[in-house]
């Protein structure tokens, strides 16, 4: 089952061109910081090999017009 979410790209915690690198960045961030929300590793739906890490709570509705919004596919979740 594929799950899509929307984020403002400026809210990302980390970016990488490799899923393993993005996941590693998320794990490091999780270890060093008390998390406010689960972290999710997502893949850009329009670009191949483009991954980002976001707080799950920062997901946006599709009708948000105030900021640039990009559609991502959820690849992994890291709970606090």
From TrEMBL:
Name of the protein this chain belongs to: Uncharacterized protein
Organism per entry: Lapidilactobacillus gannanensis
Classification of source organism: Bacteria, Bacillati, Bacillota, Bacilli, Lactobacillales
């Amino acid at each position: 089952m594929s799950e899509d979410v929307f984020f403002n790209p400026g809210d990302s915690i980390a970016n990488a061109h490799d899923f393993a690198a993005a996941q590693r960045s998320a794990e490091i961030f999780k270890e060093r910081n008390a998390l406010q929300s689960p972290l999710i590793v997502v893949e850009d739906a329009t670009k191949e090999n483009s991954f980002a890490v976001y707080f799950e709570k920062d997901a946006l509705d599709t009708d948000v017009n105030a900021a640039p919004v990009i559609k991502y596919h959820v690849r992994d979740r890291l709970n606090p």
